[in-house]
Amino acid sequence: MAHHETKIDDYGYDQSYNHPLPYSEMFLTFFALMFLTIITVGVTTYDFGYTANLLVAMGIAFVKATLVAWYFMHLKVDAPVNGVILIASLLFVTLFISFALMDTNAYQSVLDRPSIVPTAP
C-alpha cells in the first residue's frame, strides 16, 4: 500500500501531490491558445462589419478565457459548480462588453458631429 506523506507549506496548502493535469494537456491547451491568437490576428484582415467583427473577437476571447480557466486554473479537476459559475460569469461579461461596445458604436456619429458654437449677436 502506497504511503501518502502530507507536506503542508507555510500558507497551509497541501503540496504533497503532483500537478493534477498531464503535460500533454497543458501543451495542447497552450497550442490551442496560440492557434486562437493566430485566428484573432487573421480575422482582423477581413471586414465583416462592425457588429460581426465585434462578435467574432468576443467569441474567440470567450473561448480563450474558458480554456485558461478550465486547464490552467484547474477548474477541470475542481468541483463542477465552480466551473459552471466561472463559465457563466465569463459569458455574461462577454455579452455585457459586446452590448456596451455596440451601443457606443450606435452613438458614435452623434459624438463625432461638430458642436454648434453660439455666435455673438
From TrEMBL:
Membrane topology: Multi-pass membrane protein
One term under GO cellular component: plasma membrane
Signal peptide region: none
Transmembrane intervals: 26-46, 53-73, 79-101
Subcellular location: Cell membrane
Keyword Chloroplast: no
Major site of localization recorded for this protein: membrane
Key words, A-Z: Cell membrane, Membrane, Transmembrane, Transmembrane helix
The protein's name in its UniProt record: Uncharacterized protein
